[in-house]
TrEMBL record:
GO terms for cellular component: cytosol; nucleus; Rab-protein geranylgeranyltransferase complex. It comes from Byssochlamys spectabilis. GO terms for biological process: small GTPase-mediated signal transduction; vesicle-mediated transport. The lineage of its organism: Eukaryota, Fungi, Dikarya, Ascomycota, Pezizomycotina. Residues 72-88 have a biased composition (Basic and acidic residues). It holds the Pfam family GDI. Keywords: Transferase. GO terms for molecular function: GDP-dissociation inhibitor activity; transferase activity. This is Rab proteins geranylgeranyltransferase. Coiled coil: none annotated. Residues 71-101 are annotated as: Disordered. Belongs to the Rab GDI family.
Length: 524
């Protein structure tokens, strides 16, 4: 076997995050010589999944200076080595009489990428056409819930279909008519009569759009907003952003079963998908090296179009070994420092192990339908803050059926579009309100919590890959902070795939593979 140094690599991928791993999947049948390295000793990069002990070790590594030079502003250039800051672990002392305590560390698989996946997402058909779907298990995300107010501490299920609207006793008859008008409007197709010639002003704030166009009362604005997973208040989010996302939600319902429109990947979310992509490249002849990143890249002079060994990029790995590669691809955090003008947004997030299963949040999606493994709870920002324009808090709840925690417990993934201590204080308040509002769960408590600020691409940020060194070094855009899988990730992977393959690339062949011989036995 040739050494890494002696092999003329066509592509070196740095980092095993979701985008890099999907690129690995796309290149797995290309016949290219691919070296895939990661500075971490584990797969998944910034989208990995941890046991309790691994999470605590990760926090200590970041605190001890593995992420130097953290910026203070929420939108400045990111100087660190990981898209996380303000990391901490909180483990309250267990009550002596509590029947539920933390299990062993390995009983947990806590995901840094718990995004739900809509059934109309580009990701699912990509996993099917690339023949790796057999290695993944998906589970339904069922109900959306809205927390009403601090006075009532009531959770209401958000109606997301015409049937739900008609059967909801909390909505007045007049409001039901307005909601039905809105639902008919957003579920129309271009083929419907009059749609092609109709224009409307979507530049309004979402709240104003609902009031002026459909006479929707203010108490229904947050429930509708929740269907879009917008992390801005109704007054701050534009209708042009929210309405297409509500359309996505509604169009996804019923694709895989009655009553639900999104799924999650069992055993760690995006981390599990990353490992499947890497496994496909390894089967296709790619070489994997963990615990080694890239220290620097040196581009030869006038090498564009020349792929001989000496015209390739000189890549020095962090252990001192040098390799040559025609292309190097990675994220901003997996490649050597480079001056760029990319802007970043910051959100506070937390991962919370809860002592109760919170079963009432997971009713069946329909008669005879599956018991969901996920639920979405929105708590309006103005319930938690005196500011009317405060961003909402989303709490994504995963049951033990996800394989992320033991039976009798659940995991709550919290997110709010405020970084640092302010965001964490609001998240903590939101979680306590949720636990107090779920029926028959008076003793529910947080057993363990991982808290951090995450950096990523703003909603209006470019999702295009960034080439440099005559197109030989390619950086993926910052990861999306969306609570649902962002299809722009697939688009970015395809663009990088085309840059690497050049004239060999055909759009119709992207991620279109035949079953490998014996795949029915080996890949299940």
């Amino acid at each position: 076997m040739e050494s890494l140094t002696d092999t003329p690599w066509d592509v070196t991928i740095s980092g095993t995050g979701l985008a890099q791993s999907l690129l690995a999947l796309a290149l797995s049948r290309s016949g290219k010589k691919v070296l895939h390295v990661d500075k971490n000793p584990y797969y998944g990069g910034a989208e990995t999944a941890f046991s309790l002990q691994e999470a605590e070790e990760w926090v200590e590594e970041l605190k001890q200076g593995c992420v130097p030079g953290i910026a203070d502003d929420a939108h400045g250039p990111e100087p660190g080595r990981a898209p996380y800051e303000d990391v901490s672990v909180h483990s309250p002392p267990a009550a002596p009489d509590s029947p539920t305590k933390l299990a062993k560390s390995r009983a947990y698989t806590l995901s840094l990428s718990p995004q739900l996946i809509y059934s109309r997402s580009k990701l699912l058909p990509t996993l099917v056409s690339s023949k790796v779907y057999r290695q993944l298990e998906f589970q339904a995300v069922g109900s959306w819930w809205i927390y009403r107010s601090s006075e009532t501490s009531v959770l209401d299920r958000v109606p997301s279909s015409r049937e739900d609207v008609f059967s909801d006793d909390n909505i007045s008859l007049r409001s039901k008519r307005s909601l039905m008008k809105l639902l008919r409007h957003v579920t129309r197709t271009p083929q419907d009569e009059g749609v092609a010639n109709e224009t409307e002003d979507l530049d309004l704030p979402f709240a104003d759009y609902l009031t002026s166009r459909f006479n929707i009362p203010s108490e229904l604005q947050y429930p509708l907003l929740s269907l879009s997973l917008s992390q801005s208040a109704p007054q701050q989010a534009s209708a042009s952003y929210v309405i297409p996302r509500i359309q996505r939600h509604l169009a996804s319902i019923g694709v895989f079963g009655a009553g639900f429109g999104s799924v999650l990947a069992k055993y760690g979310g995006g981390s599990e998908i990353s490992q499947v992509g890497c496994r496909a490249l390894a089967v296709g002849g790619g070489v994997y090296v963990l615990n080694r990143g890239i220290q620097y890249i040196e581009a030869p002079q006038d090498a564009k179009g020349d792929t001989s060994q000496h015209s390739r990029l000189l890549v020095k790995l962090t252990d001192g070994e040098e390799v040559r590669s025609a292309f190097v691809v990675g994220s901003r955090w997996d490649l050597p420092e480079a001056a760029d003008s990319v802007s970043y947004h910051k959100v506070a997030r937390s991962i919370n192990v809860v002592s109760s299963p919170l079963e009432d949040l997971f009713p069946p999606t329909s008669d005879g339908g599956p018991i969901p493994a996920g639920a979405v709870v929105l708590i309006p920002g103005n319930v938690l803050s005196k500011r009317e324009d405060a961003p909402p808090v989303y709490l994504i709840v995963h049951s033990s059926e996800t394989g992320e925690c033991p039976v009798g417990q659940c995991v709550i993934y919290g997110s709010v579009s405020l970084p640092g201590a302010e965001g964490q204080e609001i998240l903590d308040s939101a979680i306590q309100r949720l636990l107090q509002s779920v029926r028959n769960e008076a003793g529910a408590s947080v057993l363990w919590s991982l808290r951090f600020t995450q950096l990523g691409r703003a909603d209006d940020g470019s999702a295009d890959p960034i080439p440099s060194a005559a197109g030989r070094v390619i950086r993926f855009p910052p990861p999306s902070l969306d609570l649902a899988f962002d299809d722009a990730t697939i688009d970015a992977v395809q663009k990088v795939w085309k840059m690497v393959l050049g004239d060999e690339a055909r759009d119709e062949s992207f991620m279109q593979f035949e079953d490998r011989e014996g795949a029915g036995d080996d890949e299940k």
